[in-house]
Amino acid sequence: MMKKFIIFMILFLSINTLVNAVNSQKIYVAKIEGMIGRGTENQFEKAINTAEKDGIALIIMLDTNGGLANSMENIIKKIENAKVPVIIYVAPSGANAFSAGTFILMASDIAAMANATVIGACQPRLINPATGLPEKADEKEINAYAALIKSLALAHGRNATMAEKFVRNNTALNEKEALEANVIEYIANDVEELIKKINGTYINSNKIIIKNVKIEYIKWGIRDKFINYLSDPQIASLLLIIGLFGLIFGFMTPGFHLPETIGAICIILSLYGLSYIGINVTGILLISLAIIFFIIEALTPTFGFWTTAAIITLIFGIMLIPAGEAMHEMPLSWFTTFRIASLVIAIFLTIFFSYALAKAIKARKVKPKIGEGDLVGEKGIAITDIKRKGQVKVKGEIWQAEAEEEINKGEEIIVVGQNRLVLKVRRVESEGNK
Predict the structure, then answer these.
(1) More confident residue, 135 or 81
(2) Both 99 and 29 in a single domain?
(3) Residue 68 and which of 112, 295, 306, 427 are 20 to 30 A apart at CA?
(4) Which of the two residues, 422 and 250, has the higher pLDDT score?
(5) Is 237 among the catalytic positions?
(6) Helix or strand holding residue 153 (H, E)
């Protein structure tokens, strides 16, 4: 009897567990932070694909100051075409969703914010080529971005007028102001509270019913973060500069292959990032001009004139390499760090490579010494048979040689005398017998 009872309980518990597993609902949660770039696109794609398999919704915990405009646009397309509701949740406390982040928030099916968070400030910017400083984009670009954010707000039932102010007036709102202005739907302290609040929400006439929910967190690999670094215009531009200088220095100092190897790797990595961002031809021309200036300085020292010109030209070249359109929604702080980094790298590279290249050119111009006795005691190799006369190679140079003994080609010799361009040599093996 006891045996049957135990079997019954085991079957009951197994069936109950199976039923609960079948009836449980999965909501996937992904944390995305930092600059919006190519890696962020991959993260959104992975998160949406994962949630579409067996999830009822996807929550993206977003914390960003902005990023690349083309990445932002591609992410918006992924959200709009997702087969599950995508909820953008600006969290945790202290997080922001500025610039590109606010556009992504407006594209979500449900927009939410944690306490002490801020959104907005979406006005597109560009770098002024004359000053290197960020400034407001022209009216054509502002109108285009204003129209985009308005259409996103209207499509999801939000306040289009306030959304437009994010772009035109650079307005920023905290969570309470955003809820009052109807640009978000909920304020929640954490994911669990948010899930409770979205239960019963209608999305495209479909009501979200949440019960027996299971929260699944999506993890990221190193690859996505690494790609984001490469697609940062600042990093991609600087890698290109380092790569170019590495190749130049390597070619000017043959025999030591490290500079050109590192240069080639840096150029390949930079081209990956720049192929996605886009390249401004003006930036490339300025960098080419800077390289010419620094070569002139190395060949004809002018007490720093060409070095100064190279530094100035290189700074603007670095800043103008990335296509301007890609940087419209980059964070304001990024422009400052980009300018400072460009200044430091330009000064360091120009001075270092000018000095190194000048030394390399000077070394190549030095002629071999041929004074009396300069090579006495040096060892070398016979490159011909020496029968009274022949040729030897000493310190990388070929010399006429004389010997009082026969020396076969390939044998090691030592210089025992020198008469202008003729060396007197003997076989190394015979040295100890003298």
Answers:
(1) 81
(2) yes
(3) 112
(4) 422
(5) no
(6) helix 139-155
